[in-house]
């Protein structure tokens, strides 16, 4: 792409409107929504400077460190929760711009504003932009990998500058989120099969990326053994394929907000079938270079995400991880539908995807609360508690989010035990027996009454936390005085010893 062509897109008012819309939606939701426990870990990791952020990111979070280092620097200006979230929110318009630039390169016959409109209201993009985690940065880098690769190795007569930019983007990606490497593998296969004129320059770029990423490769090797240890069982076969299908379709057409199961399932099947048919027809008719490149990168990313899910176990790869493929999947859908050579169909697809995503955004954020409803729970207890009424919280990770908002006078007691910031292990949430619970509750003091908060999270993949043991212990040893429901399935009970 020439500089003049890039300038034409960035000066379009429609693109600026979409960028502004994504920012405003993210601001509206993000400034009013509480945090979930993962964000509580981020706040701790980024609270004590760059060195602590690096150490915790690599050791405790078991993640690549760049996002946490950047956020720790950002929070030196203001340590508040809202300011930490603002880092992700401000990335939303840049993601929309980068998605438009990606579409312009790979979808020559489609107005890039159309797929950019879908990304601007994408439920996954909005979710990422209000999360104090690395996912918004990951989405932006995924787009930049695709655009930098196209400019450096798909276009002929690419300059040294474009290839240098590709190396920088890829290195930044490896130091941000490992799954972004799947896109790079796809780029390499495109070079080997489609743009062979770039093989030599791509090999040089790859050598530079690998050399710069050597420290992360050693770190990743250690982290893999730890993360694998969090899985309880092998996850494959039809359940794995069904999970990948659901993750893929949810990236493009999130319809969980529609209550009619039959309508939802058949809508997704129709979109999947039309997309598959369009791509098949395009391949049979000798597809253009850009479509082959885009399809190859997307397919490779999905295959590697599937392999990662198999290796890491059930729920090892979730929506937030799968979003590395969000933009390629949306673009592939547009490319497939365009095969039917109907401009009205493309506009209809755009409207449908925008409405589907808007519906999901409204549905998931209607209560302006995240899973656990930590702010309302904390405020409710602080308003209604009396002296010597410790707050029992299960699962134990949930204490992080509640602690951020609780201004009461009683002790917060995570069950079955407090998780340390040395090593995160989901097994710390597993209740072994009633004796363990009794010990933890008695350690809170000689109180007669307690508040009990349960957030409904009873498993991690196939690892069960044994919530039934907690309920049995409460039923035998306490009576429930009061009970209040919050964002499902969070419940707050005031209990008293029998």
Task: Give an overview of the whole structure.
The chain has 498 residues and is α/β, with parallel strands linked by helices. 63% of the residues lie in helices and 6% in strands. It has helices spanning 3-10, 13-30, 37-45, 50-59, 66-74, 81-89, 92-106, 113-121, 123-129, 135-154, 160-174, 181-193, 199-212, 214-228, 237-252, 261-284, 289-312, 319-322, 326-338, 343-364, 374-384, 399-405, 434-442, 467-477, and strands at residues 391-394, 412-414, 449-454, 459-460, 463-464, 478-485, 491-497. The strands form two sheets. A five-stranded mixed sheet has the order 2-1-3-7-6, covered by helices on one side. A two-stranded antiparallel ribbon has the order 4-5. Strand 6 and strand 7 form a beta hairpin. The chain is globular, with a radius of gyration of 24 Å.
User: Treating each run of at least 4 consecutive H or I residues as one helix, how many helices?
Assistant: 24
- Give the low-confidence spans: 1-6
How much of the polypeptide forms β-strand, as a percent range? 5-15%
Shape descriptor: globular
Distance between the first and last residues' Cα: 74 Å
Number of strands: 7
Strand order of the biggest β-sheet: 2-1-3-7-6
Helix content: 55-70%
Structural class: alpha/beta
Instruction: Please describe the biggest sheet, giving its number of strands, its sense, and whether it closes into a barrel.
Output: 5 strands, mixed
Radius of gyration: 24 Å
